[in-house]
Amino acid sequence: MTKSNPHTHLKYKFCISGAADTGHCAPDALEKTKELGKQAALHNGVLVTGATTGAPYWGAIGAKSAGGFVIGVSPAASEIEHVKKYKLPIDYHDIIIYTGFGYSGRNLLLTRSSDAILITCGRMGTLNEFTIAFEDNKVIGILTETGGMADEIKEILEKAHRGKGKVVFDPDPKTLIEKVIEMVKKEKVVEV
Fold first, then answer.
1. Dihedrals φ, ψ of 113, to 5°?
2. C-alpha to C-alpha distances, 13 to 23, 67, 101, 147, 153, nearest whole angstrom
3. Are 169 and 40 contacting, i.e. CB atoms less than 8 angstroms apart?
4. Which pLDDT value is given to residue 9?
């Protein structure tokens, strides 16, 4: 017999992954990413970002515009290092966790601390976060038609010959969040 998890009051943790440098993204990618962050907040979600610039930053702006809560996971060991060495923002976040683990360690914590990963226009770091999440069997939502890795992942999955995992694709932020939530809900059912 299955029974719903008694912790259903907990918010979903959505990691938003995308390019910090957005020069190669589709023309409407940042607006779509902002809407993705907003939809995450409107659907009982907390947004988790790499506390960086570009697409994740725009996702944070969208989440905050809807009254959402945003957690940043920084590669830096302190706020001073975050701002001065890495030159990363602190606004549009409610909490920033300073890991001191650099980008690769940060990416691992970022994806593992989330219920699902949302991929928008991205580069190598986004691909790294995707592969970590894929290997960890996480739910992954790909916001297609945003450029970069978001538009390459379907082909990468086909060439990898490892199955499609728990990956869903959609060009519409609201529809994508709804698809991701349906998959996450299945992950939160426990045997009693």
1. -85, 0
2. 28, 15, 21, 24, 22
3. no
4. 72
Residue 120 tokens, joined: 């928008």
Q: How many alpha carbons lie under 13 Å from residue 143 in its C-beta half-sphere? A: 36
Euclidean distance between CA atoms 39 and 29, whole angstroms? 15
Domain 33-187, classified CATH 3.40.50.450, yes or no = yes
Answering whether pTM is above 0.85, one says yes
* Residue-wise pLDDT tens digits, 15-67: 999 999 999 999 999 999 999 999 999 999 999 999 999 999 999 999 999 99
Domain boundary assignment for the chain: 33-187
What angle is formed at CA 72 by the lines to CA 29 and CA 93, rounded to 5 degrees? 80
Sheet of 139-143: strands edge to edge?
Answer: 95-98, 69-74, 45-49, 12-17, 116-119, 139-143, 167-170
Q: How far is CA 136 from CA 43, 55, 111, 130, in A?
A: 24, 23, 9, 10
Place of tokens 């914590």: 109
